[in-house]
Amino acid sequence: MIIGLTGGIGSGKTSVSDIFESLGVCIVDADVASRVVVEKGKTALNKIEQHFGESILDTKGNLNRKKLREIIFTSQSEKIWLENLLHPLIGKEIQDQLKVSSSDYSILVSPLLLETNQKELCSYILVVDTSIDNQINRTVSRDKVPEEQVKNVISSQVDRKKRLQEADFIIMNDGSLEDLKNETQKLHEKFLVIVNEKG
């Protein structure tokens, strides 16, 4: 059984996935997979270099993510080109990692779970939710970025209402870390029951 875990920026996805991991659940992170496919020596990085030129690499020959983000943030056609290249590769990497999971169930953490076909890999969708004010405040203090930048990211992500409509399970992350641990523990126990019932 695979649980898809998603939520807006600053909602607390990582905190929740860390708690699940501490309970022995295999975590597959789409962000990690997206970094693996563009590592030095990988075909995708060569194609990105051919397309954007050598300046897309840093001095060590690795992908300059900041520069790439700036390009795709300002050009829709370049964003589409990059997604067409990377999404299938990221999907394969995620599936390869899920195949070797040995826990009772696995969790696929992905900020773009609902925007991509990654959700089709999942039996259930778990959304971590919080207020937009919390999202902004947490991200500003964590990433040391301007509030405006966080608002832009929020507006580019799936609408909060739609995300909640897609959810099979919701964790409200408005309280303390202790509250979050308790909520996550309860869900973990619920997921184990579901797995056992499915046999």
Characterise the protein shown here.
By secondary structure, this protein is of the alpha/beta class. Helices cover 56% and strands 12% of the residues. A 5-stranded parallel beta sheet has the order 2-3-1-4-5, sandwiched between helices. Helix 2 packs across helix 5 (76-99), helix 4 (65-74) crosses helix 5 (76-99) and helix 6 (132-143) crosses helix 7 (147-156). It is globular, with a radius of gyration of 18 Å. The protein starts with a strand and ends with a helix. The mean pLDDT is 90.
Strand content: 5-15%
Main pleated-sheet profile: 5 strands, parallel
Gross geometry = globular
Helix content: 55-70%
Structural class: alpha/beta
The Cα radius of gyration reads: 18 Å
| Succession of helices and strands | EHEHHHHEEHHHEH
Secondary-structure map with pairings?
Blueprint: E1 2-6, H1 13-22, E2 26-29, H2 30-36, H3 43-52, H4 65-74, H5 76-99, E3 106-109, E4 124-129, H6 132-143, H7 147-156, H8 160-166, E5 169-172, H9 177-198
Helix pairs in contact: 1-9, 2-5, 4-5, 6-7
How do you describe this structure in short?
By secondary structure, the chain is an alpha/beta fold.
Observed structural traits:
199 residues, five-stranded parallel β-sheet, 9 helices, 5 strands, 56% helix, 12% strand
